[in-house]
Every structure is written in structure tokens, then in C-alpha cells.
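Changelog excerpt

This revision adds worked examples to the README so contributors can see how folded entries look when concatenated. The first example is reproduced verbatim below.
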Amino acid sequence: MNQDLLDLDTDDLIRTFGSATTTELASRVSDTVSHDQVTRFLSERDDTSRDRWLQVKSTVREIAQPDAVRIFDDTIQEKPWTDESELICWHFDHCQNRTVKGMNLLNAFDDSGEVSIPVDFRLIRKPLPFCDVATRRLKRASEVTKNELLQKRFLQALQNQLTFRDVFMDRWFAAKDNFALILSKHKPFVAVLKDNRLMALSQADQEQVRFVRVDSLPLADKQVVRGWLKGFEHDVLLIGRVFTNKDGCTGRLSLVCSDLTCDGEPECRVCARDTRRVDPSPPGLAQWRQPVPPGFVPLWAAAPPRGAPSGRARAAHGPTRMT
């Protein structure tokens, strides 16, 4: 892989608003790199998680901390104007509470407190078309679930001998199979729970199947209680989080932690992964952002070609390399 072309192309995509073309890229670098060079580079082969690991391996080893955390989260890059395929298709967006068309990625970050580095990813593909009997509409399905992908990525991190203490996950990964696998490898986990998850506050309540919804427990901010999740045999800690949203309303989160010695303070970092309430960027990732150079003219500022979508639609489409 040509690292110089990779850095040039990714930097250009980060700095470009709207559609990006290789012709514009070649003109901005004074024709030192031609349109055909970039096109051949992009069409050589698909970038994989192995390529990502080889790129960041030395940096991860250098800044490794014993109290680092592994963060699993997924994101959707909307592509409303692109033809549907097994890669670009419809996914449910928990932030917007509706399905959107685009690419779904499972990301893994190593967070050492001061810097967060993306070390692994998986593209969610849906190659299996099927007909929904209820709606009589054609839909797509994946061969493996995202929880299964997360488990494979977690085991791969252990195989790569990455140094981390805890595993942080958002609510759609808070499955008991994921919890059991992580605990079997002697790693604590912290995850956001959905409001409808059931919990017993004592072992006697668990044995007598007396469970309550976690959103019915009036926990104060950072208050910690011990309990048992329904269907999960190990006792865990439930941590309450109360905060103020940008619109002034009060928000609540319920965190589950397998480390029975924690006091709830360090685990509050997982709230930064709740993309509906705060900046979705992982902690520390801001230092990776490059400032826009003086005199740089974004593509959306130019007049769109005839037949192109409106400026708002192109902005929603996101940066895309067009050859």
C-alpha cells in the first residue's frame, strides 16, 4: 500500500465538504499526483482491518497504558444518493430512531485517557435479500450479527496482545453473550443498558424471579447499586447517570459494570459513546483533526453541475471520492 497516497487521499477527504473528486485533488497538489494515480490506488484492493492494525501498531505499542480501555461502537455513514448494494443499504439508526441508507461500520478504539486510536473496524454487509411477509417489501440481512462481529474483534485484540483493562460498549452491544465472553477472558466490562432491561436487587429476588426495569430505579447521579441482570448469572453494578442535554432537558443513563470494586467515577467515560446526547467523536480524537489551510475552497462552495443534488442533499451525503 502506498502510504503517501493514502495520507494524501484521507487528508483531502477530511478537509472536503460535500463531494470530492480526484480531479480536484490533483489540481490542489499542483499536478504532482495525477488523477489516474489516485484512481489506480483506490481500485487496487479493499482496505481491511489488518491494514489498519499495521498502520497504528507501533503507535499503540508506544502509548500503551495498563488502565486503557477498549471501546466498541458502530456508526452509519449516510449515502442516500448511492445505489443500494450489500454494503450500502438500509440500517436502523439509534440516534435518529429510524432506518437510514448508508454504510454501517463496527469500530474499535483503544483509549488511554489522553488519546483514542481507532485500531480495528468491520464493514457491515447484508448479502442476503429476503421478503418481509408483514410489509411485503424486499429487505437485506447479514450472514453474521454485529454482536458476533464484536466477539471476533475482541478475541482478535487479545491475540494481538493489546494492553487494555476494561471493555466499553453502547446499549445495542449489551448482550449477555458478549458479557460472558469478556468475563471469561478476565476483562471487566462497562455498557449502557436499555431502559427495559430487567434487574434483581438481591440474590433472593433473582431466585424468586422478581425483576424490575432499570429505568424504574430512582438512582442519583453516579449512585451505584449491586444486582443481577435477568438471564446473566454474575452479579454486577448498576450506575446511574443524570445530566443536562443541550436543549436543557434532563437525561438519564443506566450503566452496568462487572467490576464490583468500582465507585462509578471512571466508568462515566462511557457516556461519551452515547451519540444521541454528546459529541459522537471518541475522547481524544479531536487532536487527529487537521486545520483547514488558508485559502482552501471547499467543493460545495463551487456551483454544482447540472443535475446534481442540492447543497443540503450533498452535505447529507458526506465526503465521497468520485473518480
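The second example, added in the same revision:
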Amino acid sequence: MLLPTVAAGMMMMGGQAAGVAQPRLETAAIAVLAMQQAEQPSVPGTPPSAVPAATATTPPVQDDNPADDIVVTGDKGAPRGDPLEQLNAKSFEAVQSVDKAVVEPVAKAYNKGLPRPVRKGLRNFFSNLQEPVVFAAYLLQFKPGKAFETVGRFGVNSTLGFLGLFDVAKRKPFYLPHRNNGLANTLGYYGIGPGPYMYLPIIGPTTLRDIVGDTVDKMIVPLAVGKPFNSPSYVIPATIINQLGERAAFDETIQAIRKEDDPYTVYKNLYLKQRKAEIEALHGRTTGDTIIPIYGEDIRTPGKKGAPPLTLPDPYASDLDNDTAPAPAPAPEPAPETAPSPQ
């Protein structure tokens, strides 16, 4: 009984010793391996195996939903040449409202009640009274040829045309057409810009340069001639008849303008195009734009048989910011004629 007991005790002691020695041997083996790695020379450019590889950064996911984008917008402001656009537009709307209610019915009755020759004759009469202003403007522009043509036109229409009721001078054999000119055109001819655009009650579309020039033009005949042109008994009825005739002639054009999406801008651009074309003509140039006159003798008197309907051009087709335009390109030279081949 003693021997088995001793043997069992020795076996138990041996198992405990083995259980204690095993972790010590593993710890010693790890220490030896670390010393061997420290003694090995490192290879340049080779990263140590203990350093983990860098991971690529994942780009942020973009949201393709435009509804979540923040858009910053701002007021673009008034266009060049029209710093008072909002005020002008309101003035235009107010004037058009009054025109539709009061002036337009009278203008339509004027067109229907008076024959076209009478309406045209009255317009010719008032236009002829402005020929001295055109003459003075050409002198200021140092264009004596055009100035004396204007004198000839005024003389022919005042005599053969019965005080200007008939425009005889523009026909054969004289060929002296009416030309719009005045102090405002003279200022533009010498390079003075139009200034801000304005739409004023009673006056209508104008610019700072034009309102100054037109005011002086209207004073020339009353100051130079005197009575009856400076008498209220003449000035008031003459102004009413003249303006009524202009409005009656303009009726077709204003009706077409009101049908546009932006009648204020269309009206403004047509006016500025006509003004620009007149000043360019003084330099012997053309703008290339289709001009629809909205003032002056160039407005056609309604009622002419066979007249084509009025069609407005694209009012946004050209730049209206400047009063000057580059000279048109010269016309190409004609091709040389070839001699006919002998038969």
C-alpha cells in the first residue's frame, strides 16, 4: 500500500512541475525570438512587418439631390442706361391706363372722323414749322449742304405746298425728304451720350440729353418769329391738334407694343433704336436695325390702301447701351467680268 501511494504522489508532483515549467519555456522562446529580430539588419525601403498597412480614405458620399443644395441669388439691379427702371415702368403703366381710358377713344374717333388726306395735311403743316430747327442743327454740325437743302424744302412746301399742307418737296423734281434733326441730335453727333432713360407723363419716352435738346428746339420758332407762335391762343390749340394727330398715327404701333410680353421694354428699345439710327445717319452710318418709328413724321398715317400690317422686329436684337456703333464693313468688290468666248 505504501509503494502505490508514493508512486502516485511522485506522479502528482511531476505533473505540477511540468505545468509550471511549460509557460516559462514559452516565455523564454519568445524572448529569444525577439533578440534574433533585433540583431538582424533592417532593409531600406522595407516597412517593418509589425506596422500595419495604411488604409485608403473613403471619399465622402455626395448628395445628388438638387433640392438639398443651397442657392444664393441676388438682385441683378437696373439695366445700363435705365437706372430708374422701376419708376419708369410704373409711370409707363399709369400713362397707358389713362391713354386707354381717355386718349385712345379720341384718337380712334379722330382717325375715323377725318379723311386721311386731312390728317396727313395737318401733320405736314406742323412738321414744316420745324424745318428752321433742322436747318439750325445742320449749321451747328457744319453740314452746309444739308442745311441749304432744308431751306429749299421749307421754301417749296411753304409756297407750292400751301403752307406745308402738302409735302411737295420730297417728290420729283425736288427730291428733298424730311430729316429729323435738332439740338439733341447735335449733342449726340459730337459724342455726348444720351444719359439715363426716362418715361415721363405727357412727354413720353426720352433721355436726359433728349429732353434738354427738345426743350430748346421748341423755343426756337417762338423766340425767333414771335407772334402768333408765342401766343397762348395759338400754342394751346396747335399743341392739342399736333399731339392728337401724332397719337392717332401712333395707334397701330402702340396696339402692337401692348401685345408684347414686356411692353415697357419693347417701347424703350424702339425709341432708343430710332434715336441711335438718326445720330448714326449724321455720320453716314447705318445701325442695321429695322426701325419702327414711334415719333415724328416717319410714323405712317393710318388709312392708306394696300399698306402692309405693322410687324414689330425683335426689340432685343442689338445692344442699345452706346450711342456709337462701328462703321459698317465695306461692300465687297464686284468680280471682274470675263470676256465672252468666241463662237
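Reviewer comment on example two: Residues 85-282 form one domain. Residues 186 and 340 are 53 Å apart (CA to CA).
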